Amino acid sequence: MVGYYRSRSVGPLITAARGWVAEGKVVGPPPSVRNAFALLFQGLGCVTASQLAPPLQMPLALGGAPTAAPAANSSSSAESPPPATAGPFRLRCPIDFRWNERVNKDGSVALGVDRVTRHPQIWSLALVGLGSALVTPYAASAAFFTGPLAFATVGFAHQDYRHRRGMGGMLSPERDAATSNVPFRALLEGRQSWSAARSELKGTNAVLALVPPLLLFLRRMR
Asked: Which residues span the domain enclosing 130?
């Protein structure tokens, strides 16, 4: 980290894209295509990381909590009036503690982001790093940002190989067959359900996670 901080904007340039780098100097913003792909990968990485956090929800929900119904007297109709409501909104906890109960109905070995990759922690970092590497012309920065991607593809493939044999961990045959190391592979091969992955998406987390990549995208366009 210290080495990157000292060398992030110095050293050899690895691109000669017109309008971005000229005569060994950075003269403008990154090309639009690179910027768009950087937004895509950084957005995917941030959304993946957000799915590891507890599911957030709006603290205000529609539909007020019912209040006690007025006591009925002897001369009133046999039918009691419907309970009154306290207002159009009700307060609730900003963390949805019942998320697991609602989505894990079939006891699947994969749930939520695990349907996309069984190693979401490092792959979220790898995707953010890949997006960052696309919009830097410096060799030192590109090497730094692509490091997590190399570790995710090679390192976790080796870890899975060892865990399948019970060496240093455990990867059950059921989980191995239902999930993948490379993101989206299990979904593309039909081992996971797209509809299930979509229904288990922590929407509020995902929306909030897209804010930093969008701000970086707009900043790079200047």
From this structure: 2-54+110-220
Domain count, the chain: 1
Calculate the alpha carbon distances from 112 to 35, 51, 89 in Å. Answer: 29, 7, 29
- Model confidence pLDDT, tens digit, residues 56-96: 988 877 765 555 555 555 555 555 555 545 567 778 888 88
What does pTM read for this prediction?
Answer: 0.80
The 10s digit of each residue's pLDDT in 15-35 is 767 788 887 788 888 999 999
Half-sphere exposure of 174 (CA within 13 A, CB side): 4
Amino acid occupying residue 73: N
H-state helical runs in 28-168: 32-50, 99-103, 120-134, 139-150, 156-164
User: Per the structure block, which two tokens stand in for 62?
Assistant: 């529609």
